[in-house]
Amino acid sequence: MVTLAPATTAPDASLTVPRIVPVSTWARTTVADRQRADTANGPSAHFVRARISTSPPPQVGIAPVLRRPRRRKRGLPAGADRVALPLVTLITIFLRGHPAVKAFLRTVGALAAGSLLGLAARDEPAARFVDLAPSAGLTARTVIGGERTKEYILETTGGGVAVLDYDGDGWPDIFFVNGSRLGGFAGEDPPPSRLYHNLGDGTFADVTDKSGLSHRGWGQGVCAGDYDNDGRVDLFVTYYGQSVLYRNQGGGVFSDTTRAAGLAGPQRYSAGCAFLDFDRDGRLDLFVSAYVAPEDAVRYRPGTGSSCSWKGFVVMCGPAGLRGAQNLLYRGNGDGTFTDVSERAGILKAAPSFGFTPLVLDYDNDGWPDVYVTNDSRASLLFHNEHDGTFKERGLMAGAALTADGRAQAGMGAAAADFDRDGWLDIAKTNFDDDMTSLYRNLGGGAFEDASLAAGLGVNDRYLGWGVGFPDFDLDGWPDLLIVNGHVYPEADRAGARYAYEQRKVLYRNLGDGRFEDVSLRAGPGIAQPRAARGAAFGDLFGGGRLDVVVNNMNDAPSLLHDCAPTDRHALVVKLEGTRSNRSAIGARVVVVVGGRRLIDEVRSGGSFCSQSDLRLHFGLGASAAAERVEVAWPSGGRDVVSGVAADQAVVIREGAGLVGARAFRAFKPGACS
């Protein structure tokens, strides 16, 4: 058995060739050796993922591509094997070579691995997503900076969205984070963030004015959780300036409790947030990421420095050349207040960076929540929960910080799911253009591999991704992948046919063998619709058992994507209520056993891109009309098991009491689906 070692330079200095060595030789190399190799050959010298270990890294560079996949009915073209093997071999050699061809060959390699080696379309029909926002009454525009030009980095971020049932009537409502403009609004106040109440008939009512959600300014992200355990879900909204905690008082009214809760502090450029119970004491804590130093958000005008240009255009500056910021962790005290424990918990040991989305997940299956943070233009962070109130940053050692060839990316959003159904949660991360969405496959034992190319995600590298999720849109029990896109530079419209400011979404179908198929072009007008999208949130808004997608679009009305494709498959929606655990059950893990398969998910606050999806969990059951059982592992350490759960309903499971409620799905077919 051999593995790829750091490259050596051929006599032709324009070409870098990988050196093949036995595994035993790799095991004897030291970290210092690998660092010296990186210095000599550049950051791409490690073709495999950068993980400090004495064991050889998995063959993520070539092996998954060369492994012969199971043939499908509409699989390999004639002669594909004879073409693919030498082509992929050449790509492997050149991938770390000349920088002028590196990006191009990365795309060609993905196409060879996907198209030639069997990523053929399945026989089932694709989805048919339509945008119901206009007919549903979601018409208010989100305002974020200038429309035709962006002078500062502050004008490019924000746009989080939340799906939450704030009044507990069983119908998920929607909250859109709004922004502002540098030049003001001609004497008027900036527009408010918007709260829409779900009327249960396919439409929504704007209830912002009476909701008390009155703060205005440069809104960024949002997360939800019942921080005071009173049975009503609360909101935390991040801002450039002062973020705001809204306590749900009932009756559709929220109150600003930021100062009373101990969360008022210095001005920050906060980005994403997530409630979690990191110490498992039954009280929600709060993690808040930050993008850049607040003073740098509007400091440098376009063209000021070397980082203020793109594709020959003078553009806004950053994040390169700006100062980063640090993440914060607040511990819930149980009396409605929070204490900043960022330093004590080890969060501040990570150097300041450009943090966007915190994603909370138990990646090592030890029952304790960990935190993954996407960083723009820097290595992503993975804070491992040490069970004693502290965290250790392990992103690099775990293999989830960089690409397979050791490159930092411009990370934006993140989502978690067990996409290969092996019992370990995997991570998807959206990135800047000229790059692909990252897929980190969880190997167990605290390690990940970059499976992006092997999974077929390399077919798309022209989009700038933001919100992301793993909705099982075809209800076959395999998490699919949806990404919303949009550029940061309006100048992208003048950079050639490859680039655009407003971009379509990308939808990948999970093939069930570790690979995804891009079905975007046959997934309906809602996916094809170009927008400058940011946040995306997922939930069954209409009670029909299908996941809908709410998208916050920059300087535009929102999108509400509903799948009209017919299906005879089944689904199950699970809502949890904690008693000993936090009331929102955030951090609880649910396993739905159906047909001998184990479908896994966790109740999660935050994620996507600085957004909040429905706290209820959605499972596609395929042809099964019932789940053998639903297993719940609560943050308190307790367990509940409910057996023989019928499909096609939304159920409520209460900690210690089991199944306490159920509502059958209803038929929902809006006019746009006709």
Low-pLDDT runs: 1-86, 88-121
Secondary structure class reads mainly beta
Q: On the 0-100 scale, what is the average pLDDT?
A: 85
The portion of residues forming beta strands comes to: 25-35%
Per CATH, the architecture of the largest domain is 7 Propeller
CATH overall fold name of the largest domain: Methylamine Dehydrogenase, Chain H
At the fourth level of CATH, the homologous superfamily of the largest domain is YVTN repeat-like/Quinoprotein amine dehydrogenase
Labels describing this entry:
8-stranded antiparallel β-sheet; 674 residues; Methylamine Dehydrogenase, Chain H; 40 strands; disordered N terminus; Immunoglobulin-like; mainly beta
Summarize it.
This protein is mostly beta strands and 674 residues long. The protein is built from 9 helices and 40 strands.
Describe the structure.
- This protein is mainly β.
- The chain has 3 domains: 2-116, no CATH class; 142-563, YVTN repeat-like/Quinoprotein amine dehydrogenase (Methylamine Dehydrogenase, Chain H), CATH 2.130.10.10; 570-673, Sandwich (Immunoglobulin-like).
- The chain is 10% helix and 32% strand.
- β37 and β38 form a beta hairpin.
- α4 packs antiparallel against α5.
